[in-house]
Amino acid sequence: MGEIEINYGSTIPTESLKVIAESVGIGNLSDDAAKEISDSATYRLKLVLQESKKFMVHSNRCKLLPSDIDNALKVFGIEPIYGFHSKDHIPFRYASGGGRELHFIDDKDIDLIEFVNAPLAKLPLEISIRCHWLAIDGVQPTVPENPPSVSKDMQKLECVDPLGKLKKPIDKEVSGRPSTGKAQKLRNVETVHVKQLATHELSVEQQLYYKEITEACVGSDEARRAEALQSLASDPGLHEMLPRMCTFIAEGVKVNVVQNNLALLIYLMRMVKALLDNPALYLEKYLHEIIPSVVTCVVSKQLCMRPEIDNHWALRDFASRLMAQICKMFNTPTNNVQTRITRVFTNATNSDKTALPSVYGALEGN
């Protein structure tokens, strides 16, 4: 019975070792030497892989990462291999020639001039903890960290059924016995429902916030304006200030259209954009103030002092995009906002007395 050679597991091919030896200047590596080096390298590689697997198992992962290999090398006192920390699979390319087969990594050429002149990456923000009030004397403050006091669904419900919150269950008699007979019928006849006046009282903090936001949005400081618009687009506690905000925009457009103040009209339209982008606000109750303001900026005859120089076309384009967003968000079979707005723009287009800027705005709006 002849000898049977049994190989346990995979080994590094001797051909690969000869190629590696040639790459470092060793030309004639014998087969026996290659076999010994292959066995020794395979044994040490298996030790490293076994130790790497321990790190993978203790990390509750099913995928071996380069960091596991580095940690295993550190355990054996070997300096880890630097540069292989990609989370993605490293693609190997295949090449053959001269009876040999090779798998290698396709390294891309890096332009050093472009690399040196590239802007530096921004430093990551440091981890910090910021505290805020959940409630003050049982009242939740309207800060971005807290949920909105009135959800968007509740705002929509109030818009659809404004008398819903006035409906109250029928009270019983003080003695606990329900009224019946003629007295109950008489009371039902004589009962008069009086609609209560809706009051929108703002706290001192909300009044200060409203003053600062409106001044920042129409002021000359661009950094403050950007912060104010970001607050309008993300703050969930603006529900109680919406009537005042919309009135401010409507009155501002009326005044600045007469004065042909193009810059302030742009700032006011940016406020409308920020309010529309706020996910916690529902603006359908205030469309009667917002839509005329936006339409004015689209089809007004003159929006600036020097129409031939100032770029009032950009304002008309921006306002028409706002109108399209309003129609997309609030058009229903009941209000027919899109149909009515389209009719307004169509009438402006078909009229012979319409000025050229108004025709442009009407076409852009349609």
TrEMBL record:
Protein name: Transcription initiation factor TFIID subunit 6
Record keywords, A-Z: Initiation factor, Nucleus, Protein biosynthesis, Transcription, Transcription regulation
Record-annotated membrane-spanning stretches: none
Residue span, TATA box binding protein associated factor (TAF) histone-like fold domain: 10-74
UniProt GO BP: RNA polymerase II preinitiation complex assembly
A Pfam match: TAF
Gene behind this protein: Taf6
An annotated GO cellular component: SLIK (SAGA-like) complex
An annotated Gene Ontology molecular function: transcription coactivator activity
Protein family: Belongs to the TAF6 family.
UniProt xrefs under SMART domains: TAF
InterPro entries in UniProt: Histone-fold (IPR009072), TAF6 (IPR037796), TAF6_C (IPR011442), TAF6_C_sf (IPR046344), TAF_TATA-bd_Histone-like_dom (IPR004823)
Entry-linked SUPFAM superfamilies: Histone-fold
Location in or out of the cell: Nucleus
